[in-house]
Structure to design on (319 residues):
């Protein structure tokens, strides 16, 4: 799709959260966020604009800018500030603006570091900066004026482990909406529509990832309310997308591999949350980043997944 102008291309930033360089998808994503709060859509688009603009000023690779890759992490970071610190506060807007500029620098550092191993940055810059913001915010009254942070020590789960059928349906969509830190099920439905506009395969893989997240959490005995709110399954959606159709070709073999990764990310999510519990317990997309990088490294040993033969690998090493 050819975009009409740079303003339209900015919409690729939010779309790249789910690995799509499609401005139409980005527009639907922003509209979906706005249905929960119009300011959320503004923060996501504004964050993408600031990240992309900073990258342009610093002469980042034109391909990365044009594809929206420089607006992805800044878009998520701006939305994180709005959700956790209050979208209507001037201090939140200022912090988000500065954070988006820093996100461009963090992205450049992560890209250069992971390039040594031929790995993508994913949302690692966002995870690092979002963690800093949420941990540090309680120390500054102008940023978080209402007391201490939500820190809590991990404890054993309790309550029922079987969600009712209605909650399962809502969890299916919340797994998608929680990628953007929101728990409204209808936001997830609209996000899936945005995926469908760009790629039917991506939409189906995201649905498979969400279902895998629900089944894994239920099989492991997760509390029904944690399954229902989408916080356990959101990383499964991203892992499935990344491993089937983005960094590995979409084939039956990679789909199975991706769903195994989705199940792994679901199991990893409480571990990450517990590790971060003393500082608030926000897992963000850390489970997605850790699982995807691990599975991508491992995939290099499996020609069935990468499509490379041993002969081709030997030839590459000889060259």
């Amino acid at each position: 799709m050819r975009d009409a102008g740079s303003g339209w291309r900015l919409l690729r930033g939010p779309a790249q959260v789910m690995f799509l360089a499609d401005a139409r998808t980005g527009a639907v994503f922003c509209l979906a966020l706005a249905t929960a709060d119009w300011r959320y859509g503004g923060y996501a688009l504004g964050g993408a604009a600031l990240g992309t603009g900073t990258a342009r000023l610093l002469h980042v690779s034109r391909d990365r800018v044009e594809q929206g890759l420089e607006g992805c992490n800044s878009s998520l970071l701006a939305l994180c500030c709005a959700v956790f610190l209050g979208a209507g506060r001037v201090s939140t807007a200022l912090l988000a603006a500065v954070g988006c500029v820093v996100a461009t620098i963090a992205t450049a550092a992560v890209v250069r570091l992971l390039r040594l191993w031929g790995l993508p940055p994913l949302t690692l810059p966002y995870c690092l900066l979002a963690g800093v913001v949420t941990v540090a915010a309680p120390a500054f009254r102008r940023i978080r004026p209402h007391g201490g942070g939500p820190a809590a020590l991990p404890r054993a789960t309790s309550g029922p482990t079987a969600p009712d059928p209605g909650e399962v349906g809502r969890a299916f969509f919340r797994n998608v909406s929680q990628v953007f830190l929101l728990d409204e099920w209808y936001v997830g439905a609209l996000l899936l529509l945005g995926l469908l506009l760009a790629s039917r395969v991506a939409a189906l893989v995201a649905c498979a990832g969400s279902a895998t997240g629900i089944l894994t959490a239920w099989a492991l005995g997760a509390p029904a309310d944690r399954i229902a709110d989408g916080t356990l399954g959101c990383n499964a959606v991203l892992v499935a997308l990344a491993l089937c159709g983005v960094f590995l070709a979409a084939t039956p073999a990679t789909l199975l591999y991706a769903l195994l990764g989705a199940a792994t990310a679901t199991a990893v999510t409480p571990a990450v949350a517990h590790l971060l519990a003393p500082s608030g317990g926000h897992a963000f997309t850390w489970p997605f980043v850790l699982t995807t990088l691990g599975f991508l490294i491992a995939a290099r040993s499996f020609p069935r997944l990468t499509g490379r033969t041993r002969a081709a690998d030997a030839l590459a090493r000889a060259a």
